[in-house]
Amino acid sequence: MDGHHANAAGEYIGASVWYEWLFAQSPVGNAYVPTGLDAACARFLQDTAHRAVIKEQVTATSGMIR
């Protein structure tokens, strides 16, 4: 790791957020687990990404700007 780029977990959570925004489908339950992560970590990152997208959608819908 060079200090400027995301590690495997950072790349995976970023991809999970983009996946949900682009396809309007939760990443939770996606069977893909990248090298460097275990299944439990991948599931945690999927859940975290999903919660972040849902929270942003609720905030945007309510008209609140943070």
Features:
mainly alpha, 2 helices, 61% helix
Structure description:
This protein is mostly helical. It has one domain (8-62). The protein has helices at 8-23, 39-62. It is globular and about 40 Å long. The mean pLDDT is 89.
Classification by helices and strands: mainly alpha
The number of helical segments is 2
Mean pLDDT over the full residue set:
89
* Rg of Cα set: 13 Å
What is the helix/strand order?
HH
Low-confidence parts lasting 5 or more residues at pLDDT below 50? Answer: none
In helices, the fraction of residues equals 55-70%
- Find the count of extended strands (DSSP E, 2+ residues): 0
Shape: globular
Distance between the termini: 32 Å
Q: Report the biggest beta sheet as strand number plus sense, adding barrel if it closes.
A: none
What is the domain total for the residues? 1
Question: What is the element layout, followed by pairings?
Answer:
Blueprint (H helix, E strand, L loop, with lengths): L7 H16 L15 H24 L4
Helix pairs in contact: 1-2
